[in-house]
Amino acid sequence: MKKYCIIGHPIAHSLSPSIYNRYFQAMNIEASYEARDLDPASFDEEVLGIIRGYDGFNITIPFKDKILQYLDLDRGAAEIGAVNCVFDGKGYNTDWIGFIRSLQGIELIPPVMVIGAGGAARAIVYGLYRMGIHDLHLMNRTQSKAEELSQSYSKRFGMKIYVHPFSALERMIKRAGTLINATSVGLKGEHFNVTPETFSDVRVLFDVIYTKTPLQRLAVRQGIKVVMNGRSMLYHQAVENLRIWGILKEDHFHRIFEEVTS
Ligand code: ATR
Fold it and tell me: Which atom of ligand 1 is nearest to the CA of 122?
């Protein structure tokens, strides 16, 4: 019996156990996938046992960077500075891969503007870099985190990331060709404090939230032609996890993912 899990804190909201357990069942794979809520205070005591005890696992907030020191890293995880998938003592980042695969065939119209500077934003900005987009605009509620992201990526990859104060949100969205929301705003139905007309010249919207949010609805009402949510990013990162763990049959997984998430 193989054992997989996701570790995080909190973890109750995670869709991963339903998705992977349904997949294992459908594929007759003898395996289980559990959600483990780890107390951040005991992370260092527990992490080695988890690395040894599971055939593969995922990591979410707030442990994606805490685990770096315990693993060998693949290029993406090392360059982003965050791990969300582990196999055989090695840490991977599949978020950025999920992001770029979800954009296949979609042209990102410049200027590109990203909101957010947390784990999702780091993976997305890195994905943009790997897609050849080296210039972009960044805003975050806590501006210092955006400055930090900008400085580390310009030093490491030569990206030009222009940081703007959050108070300029409306003005900056008006100038964006492509707008990417990489924050958690919308997860509970919240919306940015901007007028609907703000979006009238945006051509492409990518919202990392995988459910329908007020931002996505507004974008559709404002006539933005390409409006994407995080569902396909979630799908493609899960496909990549299964590939790394050596248990991927993509057509089956696609069907299960549709069933569980729609
Ligand atoms: P994730 O890994 O999903 O990116 P995270 O690292 O906790 O999660 O980052 C959450 C992001 O959402 C951050 O950019 C956060 O802004 P702060 O850095 O200022 O905390 C952003 N965020 C969360 N709630 C927000 C809100 N109400 N308004 C604006 N930004 C918000």
Answer: 4
